[in-house]
Amino acid sequence: MITLLYFARLREVLASEGESLPWPQALDVAQLKRLLAARGGVWQQQFAENPRLRAAVNQALVADNAVIEDGDEVAFFPPVTGG
Amino acid sequence: MTVRVQAEDFDLGAEVRQLRLQSAGAGAVVSFVGQVRDLNLGENVASLTLEHYPGMTEKALQAIVTQAQARWPILNALVIHRIGTLQPLDQIVLVAVASAHRGDAFAACEFIMDYLKTEAPFWKKESSSKGEQWLEALGTDHQARERW
User: Which of A29, A53, B15, B97 has its CA 20 to 30 A from that of B33?
Assistant: First the structure.
């Protein structure tokens, strides 16, 4: 299993704070995004049509080619706006 | 080096005094305070709610301070960032840096703020006369970071 977390505007649009997903094989972030986009609707919009979406694996920012292993924590969120 | 993410307000005088007294070799302490503006993009701001990613946010702030340490001879640094709902004129963020000389302290303080704005996972949602909306990241913040 992997843990998925969604933050800020993304959390509101998806109406989900996160979920657990079975993870039988190592895939990269781009492949995970395609899996989520295949749910259609807002998932398609957010994961296939949103180039500004950021990803973190185990709490470190990563690019789309980062590999996700079983047990990882993966977060998706919009560009940050703190300070 | 201290990093704190908290809902409570902070006392600039007390925080800077503590940092100063822990840094006997420092000839300079530079601090920056960010506060909530009452006007943003022409709208009256009623409140601002800050969300963060518990765990990653603290790590990201720590990593930014570590990068600053690698570039300037910093004796001590403090970052406090607030979360939750804030009103105009509330303090949001404090960055304070102690160094032997002011040039390094000024530069490191500005570097930490510029990196914080583009790398640390915080998100602002603004409540104004127009309703609620998530703020967009600014290109000028990315330009500010690219200078370094």
Answer: A53
What local confidence, expressed as pLDDT, does residue B51 receive?
98
In a domain, residue A37? The reply is yes
pLDDT at B57: 98
Query: How many Å apart are CA A16 and CA B14, to the nearest integer?
Result: 40
Strands A2-6 and A73-77: parallel
What residue of B is the nearest CA neighbor of A5? B53
Q: In the numeric block, which tokens belong to residue B9?
A: 């307000």
Sign of the torsion angle spanned by Cα atoms B39, B80, B5, A71: positive
When pLDDT is averaged across residues B102-110 and rounded to a whole number, the result is: 98
Contacts of A12 in chain B (CB under 8 A): 134
Residue reference for tokens 């800050």: B50
Tell the residue number behind the tokens 């309703």, with chain if given.
B131
Q: Which burial class, exposed, middle or buried, applies to B21 when counting CB atoms under 10 A from its CB (0-12, 13-18, 19+)?
A: exposed
Going along chain B from its start, the domains and CATH numbers come out as 2-133 (3.90.1170.40)
**Dihedral pair phi/psi, residue B50, rounded to 5°:** -105, 125
Q: Are A70 and B103 in contact (CB under 8 A)?
A: no
Could A78 and B134 be called an inter-chain contact, meaning their C-beta atoms sit closer than 8 Å? yes
Model confidence over A55-68: pLDDT tens digits?
999 999 999 999 99
Q: Is residue A82 in some structural domain?
A: no
